[in-house]
Amino acid sequence: MSIINDTLKSIEEKKRKESEKNQAPGRFREKNDSSLNNTLEEKSRKRLWGTFIITAIIVGGITWKVVNHNAPEVVTSHLVASAEKNLHHIRPAKAYPAQSVVHNKSATFKISSISKNTAPSNAIKNQESNEANHLMQDLSSATRSHDHARFDALVKTLSSRPHWRRELGLMISQLKASEQSATAELLVQALQKRAPMDAPLRMQLAHLYLDDHKSKTAASLLEGETLSVDKHTAYYALLAYALMKSKKYEKSIGLYQQLISIDSSQPTWWMGLGVAYLYLGKSHEALASFERAQAHTGAHAPYRYFLSEQIHALRGGQT
To answer: Which of 79, 225, 264, 272 is the most exposed place for a label (fewest CB within 10 A)?
Structure first.
């Protein structure tokens, strides 16, 4: 019996050992799975901490920039909107004399008298006004009837007069006041064709295009003439302005810089340069330009407040 019992015990011991041996890989796998999970959790925690730290650095950097530098790029869009309202200060004066014209709602047009600075005497002033008035009515009539031959003949008559430029200025002013900008454009275009090298005529026509929101046409017209920049600064200042209005900011900046190299005391050129930089988002360059403009601006200049507003904002103030 003892031998049988010993044998049975031996068999049970072997079974137990075999069972333990079979269960060992499972325990080993469980141990490995647990270690793997712990490793993944640790990596995940590290990744989350890394993301948090990077985010904190970025946010902190932006906050520091806003607090310490007021982030000029952020206020640029507001400054551009302000600049849009003040572009008339940058635009050069029109080539023809500005007139105080009252529109007559009846079919008759009346051209105002020329100022004393542009007329030698009252007699000549009245004569030129009357002649220009009649000629303008004829031109308006020819335009409405599409009589091109008559229109060309009238243009030829105007160009042959000794003081045709002064009369042209009067006619343009009256035509614009009478909402006949198209006729004014046709008139100057016809004169410009007769004298394609006449820079003042090109400028007059460019002004008409700009008034009619045809900035690209104005820029193209002015670019068609090659003149000496140092002798025709007003011409190229108008071109720089037209280029800026045409969204050709780099070209405009280059031309303003060229003009400033000739005469650095012109505040409107510095202003034009500053606004062109604003359109490109170059706030620091814009600030430097506006500061130079302010340095050359008189105490009663109409654009002094605009410059102060721009400089205050770009230096870190509030718009």
So the answer is: 264
- 53 and 100 belong to one structural domain: no
Confirm if 274 and 242 have CB atoms less than 8 A apart: no
Identify the sign of the CA torsion 218, 223, 224, 227: positive
Q: What is the largest CA-CA distance in the chain?
A: 158
* Both structure tokens of 22: 């079979």
Interior angle at CA 181, CA 94 and CA 246, nearest 5: 60
For residue 224, being part of any structural domain is answered with: no
Q: 238 and 205 in one domain?
A: no
State the residue range of the domain holding 82.
72-86+231-319
**Of the residues 212, 240, 259, the one at which a domain ends:** 212
Q: What is the distance between the alpha carbons of residues 199 and 51, in angstroms, rounded to a whole number? A: 64
Asked if 198 and 155 count as a contact pair (C-beta separation under 8 A), the reply is no
**DSSP E strand stretches across the chain:** none
pTM: 0.65
Q: What is the Cα–Cα distance from 128 to 132, expressed in whole angstroms? A: 6
How many residues are there in the chain?
319
Given a contact cutoff of 8 angstroms between Cβ atoms, the answer to whether 53 and 299 are in contact is no
Interval 45-61: pLDDT, tens: 666 666 666 666 665 55
Residue 264: other Cβ atoms inside 10 A = 12
Could you tell me the pLDDT band of residue 97, with boundaries at 50, 70 and 90? very low
> What are the C-alpha distances in Å from 158 to residues 71, 116, 152, 188, 308?
57, 22, 10, 11, 46
* Rounded CA separation 172/3 (Å): 136
Q: At what angle do helices 233-245 and 249-262 cross, to 10 degrees?
A: 160
Q: How far apart are CA 248 and CA 106, in angstroms?
A: 43
Nearest to 184 by CA among 201, 199, 197: 201
- Start-end of H helices in 70-121: 72-84, 87-90
